[in-house]
Amino acid sequence: MIRVSVNGYGTIGKRVAEAIMLQPDMELVGVSKTSPNMEALVAQSKGIKIFSPDESSKKFEESGIKISGNIEDMIKYSDIIVDATPNGVGAQYKTLYEKYEKRAIFQGGEKPNVADVSFSALCNYDEALNKKYVRVVSCNTTALLRTICTLSKLGKIDKVRATIVRRAADPKEFKKGPINALVLDPATIPSHHAKDVNSVLKDLDIITSAIIAPTTLMHVHLLNVTFKQQIDKEDIVSIFLNTPRIVMVSSRSKISSTAEIIEVARDLGKMRNDIREVVVFEDSIYTKGSEVFLTYAVHQESIVVPENIDAIRAINGISADESIKITNTSQGISGGYII
Amino acid sequence: MIRVSVNGYGTIGKRVAEAIMLQPDMELVGVSKTSPNMEALVAQSKGIKIFSPDESSKKFEESGIKISGNIEDMIKYSDIIVDATPNGVGAQYKTLYEKYEKRAIFQGGEKPNVADVSFSALCNYDEALNKKYVRVVSCNTTALLRTICTLSKLGKIDKVRATIVRRAADPKEFKKGPINALVLDPATIPSHHAKDVNSVLKDLDIITSAIIAPTTLMHVHLLNVTFKQQIDKEDIVSIFLNTPRIVMVSSRSKISSTAEIIEVARDLGKMRNDIREVVVFEDSIYTKGSEVFLTYAVHQESIVVPENIDAIRAINGISADESIKITNTSQGISGGYII
């Protein structure tokens, strides 16, 4: 059993913690929380051990939430730490992971140089094998990489041009967004997403631009991929249908919005309406000679969860095929059509 | 077994259909759908029989979705029909229910005179016993009635004054709202909600005003209830904690928004993040002499589901205590604190 703890119990941390509990080869040591709020109450109700900084212990005591030690205790008890602290905070914690000689997974909000390798399971799993520090790229970059690496099996890619329409805030937030505007993110092109893709696919010619829209549900990417040769639409459909971390929206479902995708996830009883797959609109796939156009949606809250689980196994020297298979089974990821 | 069909498979219809499937004393005959869209695909994937108008059968055939007959067939096979068609359409269908001498439940979007009685399980269950046509009041009215009838156990209510802040649209909608505005609904006072409460509590002095806000998650009601005598806060807390169709948001959870309530529902794995209970903010309960102030949230998509199930049993002559108990158990409704 790989003993894993999750440092930071926000949107990503809570999902990764629950995913760890579902893995046959992992044990969740616990999670860290700095304040005894509703998410601490939820963790406690699920039987998850909570560790907190020493300065917070009094607050927890007052609110009647049991803590199992401080964050250094949690690190000591673990083989691997998944760092899901806010952007930039992971780099500060790295000194603590180093102090106890523990391996760690960082999220895409950290700079690439925090880790030995930036990671996307379908692109460069093997580069993370037995590494000490691995960084799982962000939700947008994870979606770009899954899609691009899947398409690259059909032929040599010449270049990728992509527009990213980002959700303004996560559903649970009540202090920011969605703002009543379209916001260039940033106004300069390329956006940082292209650079982040290049942290994994170093030689790819990719330019991205991004805009923030007033919605909370999902991101949407509009891709224009140019191959070195002509590509048939049916080959694209076929490879997407046979790649478990990608699901398709069929023409007959008449779905044309992120609202409907989330509604299907709710109707199917998916926990938290999470969708860990890239969701490609089948009707959007269009080819013109060597150019391919397509549109897909990205569930920003959950898409990186399987990659975090795979990264834990990669660090432990377990092969890509084996890890991806276990992760997909435990997470109900099976590809095909969403409905 | 009571054979029930659901006419109309939208936001309310799909939830009522699934709730029927969970009742030990009911059998779901099927649901009606007019177009073979994503919701039809979801119904099919759950093994729910679909009936459609004759004019739609070709569309279903083309899309490969099996239909089990037309809507008259569905009505014929049923003991009771839950009508969850759009506002005003239920009244048109009533002639069909009458033709086949079938009993029916209507929703709050129909006028009160469509049915023999307007229904709220905690207020006037017995009035619906053995009736032919029962109308379950709307989501907002259901919440008002549950709260008022529960408070009325503490003492005689002199008057209720309430502000209703409505969500602009449901989460699944992509053709309307939330608009970027606050909309008076309507500008004249009282709003229709007071009148709808009076369809059940005929003598209550109640005035409501309503405003629409740009959000999809939940409604919020701000109540000012004046009793004939002084009321203690602790008695209100106690009665709410002991009423299963009401849950409380505790002070220590630090929840102060509908976004956080929905996030808790997601974290707890509640199907579609539905919350069938009225969600009262404990901190909002404030008393001044005989006046009580309180604020609660209403999950517009699902709050009327238990009342629909109870109405089916009331029509069949089953007692309030027995029905409410079975409904609560099957729907996971247990009261107390939400977390």
UniProtKB/TrEMBL annotation, chains A, B:
This protein's GO CC annotations: cytoplasm
Residues where D-glyceraldehyde 3-phosphate binds: 138-140, 193-194
GO biological process: glycolytic process; lysine biosynthetic process via diaminopimelate
Record-listed NAD(+) binding positions: 11-12, 109, 167, 300
Enzyme's top EC category: oxidoreductase
Cited InterPro entries: DapB_N, GlycerAld/Erythrose_P_DH, GlycerAld_3-P_DH_AS, GlycerAld_3-P_DH_cat, GlycerAld_3-P_DH_NAD(P)-bd, Glyceraldehyde-3-P_DH_2_arc, NAD(P)-bd_dom_sf
Pfam families membership: DapB_N (PF01113), Gp_dh_C (PF02800)
Subunit and partners: Homotetramer.
Name the UniProt record assigns to this protein: Glyceraldehyde-3-phosphate dehydrogenase
Organism of derivation: Acidianus brierleyi
